[in-house]
Design brief:
Number of strands: 3
Number of domains: 1
Shape: globular
Number of helices: 2
Strand order of the largest sheet: 1-2-3
Oligomer: single chain
Mean pLDDT: 77
Strand content: 5-15%
Length: 82
């Protein structure tokens, strides 16, 4: 004999997947915005990204790193302000 699940049980599970997907999209959109903002600041500062090495360098040729941290490190932003 087939016993169906209650209506609310089916839809609550389906809704959880939708919420998780929306949350993932929101996070990825937020990360994309941070990356774009970091790249904009880096461009203003003259930072160069070398594809062959997958690293960032400043205008004097000094190695900065693999990622830009303008959104997390106060010292990085102070260079922009000066």
């Amino acid at each position: 004999m087939y016993v169906s699940r209650p209506y609310y049980e089916l839809h609550s599970r389906r809704g959880e997947g939708v919420c998780k997907e929306r949350k993932r999209k929101k996070i990825s959109t937020f990360k994309l915005k941070i990356m774009n903002d970091n790249k904009l600041i880096a461009e203003f500062m003259g930072v160069v990204f070398r594809d062959d090495e997958n690293q960032y360098y400043d205008t004097y040729g000094r190695h900065i790193g693999y990622t830009l941290r303008f959104h997390t490190d106060w010292e990085w932003l102070m260079c922009v302000v000066e």
